[in-house]
Input
Amino acid sequence: MNRQGQKSMDKVDLSVEERWAEVRKQLNAARASYEEAGELTGDEVKKALKKRAKALASRSKDEEKEASANLEVVEFLLAHEKYAVELSCIKEVYPFRDCTPIPCTPSFVLGVINVRSRILSVVDLKSFFDLPKQKVSDNSRVIILADDDMEFGVLADELKGVNSIPIEKIQPSLPTLTGVRAQYLKGVTAGGLVILDGFQILRDKRIIVSLEVD
Output
């Protein structure tokens, strides 16, 4: 490589390093903001998570049978459409703020947030599902999905609450649901609620972004 080419490469490397330095600065500020505000899960979701944990700890066989006949979900909006994810794969719910864009990531990755020193990527499912974009508002929330191996957030335009749906009322599919949404589909209700398989989303390598920030 000639001297001019080397200078060009050095300039590119410096630009990337400067951008990451700005990312680290914003993440540190976000960390302080989240720690000051404390955990904001939404009373209904928080109570539902605690209730579920308590029920699992002291559940009789009859209660297990009754619970298995229903699917507990968190309902939310994406581009004015109703979606839900099973409560069992949701760790927390946070207001969407202090999200730091990251260079060289797919368009459906909005950036990262700092939640009590945990760096989590935030995915916009609307972009992944080819749905119309919505402006971020005070109602926007980050639903943090987690299993034993993976953890990241998905953006919801608005949180609608927790619901317990009889499994017998969940239909397998709709003709209008195709592509990625069909792959993530757990079922739909007669009222048009699309229930996504949160664990399938967590396992999909196309949507996983691994980030390490010092």
